[in-house]
């Protein structure tokens, strides 16, 4: 007897089965989204407002931020949203843009030298709108303003605060001569106004005078309801030596004047140079550089020059202590063998004539009064001879002042159509 076995149907493949209704609906949604994306390509205008503001905060120059605000109505509203909140936040994230330097020279007049990184017209920052400008010299730059002092330092003369961008200025008389009998002006510095902002009508001027071994400090306050000088304090054992965001007072002991709080503090610099040897005088210069990342505060150094020896002290953020980061016992030995530098047994005079952007420019002269310029990268302490194409800019320069472009104080939002 023959038995015929029937073939069993193969097991049903679940994966090959029809999708469930829920899966079908998901596929239809994906197809609709894909079709919409193909019909209407996404652009930068589809970026959410919160993400757009984060992108604009990455712009590290006020020039680029203003250009972005002029690009379209939506970007301008993003910058102007919340009044000055966005602009203050952007300014706190990035250091001001350096557009150039005012060079004070041994031969008049001073000159503005634009930064090679920015293609700008240097004539835009000329101070030719100041009457008798050849009789003045630059004393400080801060917040887009320039402070001028009369040559000669007579107390009967004025000081001038001006804004090169708006070509506005105002003169300020020195404190009463009765308060400064037999005194001479030692330094003048620009500060923010008492509300933390600065403009041609809202600023402060810190003015130092020497009376023998005493140093008197006055502060001029310019506000909408009037202006005037007020006495800050007097020191009997200090002398003003240099300034940027900090004012350094040197001798016995070294003192720091915080320009925001106007408070003095003693500084314990770990000086290793034997200052009992000639020359007797020391020079101190403050140099600022970029922080380790865009959101960190700038790094601050003090350069101490004694003869042809240099010491570099760095401020440790948080602790407020100064550490000896680098030293050059003899500049003549350190520069020997550099391309373009002649062999010199010892430099007769050494000065730091420029700083403020992480690069210090050191001027050195030999016994025959021949001069060379060296640049020091404050981050790496690399020493180089200044290239010949830049030497002309420093011709007879005794000091430079860094001019930074201020972040815009306000941007008006566009009106609705």
From TrEMBL:
Residue span, F-box domain = 41-89
Gene3D superfamilies per UniProt:
1.20.1280.50
One matching Pfam family is F-box-like
User: InterPro entries annotated for this entry?
Assistant: F-box-like_dom_sf (IPR036047), F-box_dom (IPR001810)
State the name under which the record lists this protein.
Answer: F-box domain-containing protein
Q: Where is this region: Disordered?
A: 1-41
Question: Superkingdom of this entry's organism?
Answer: Eukaryota
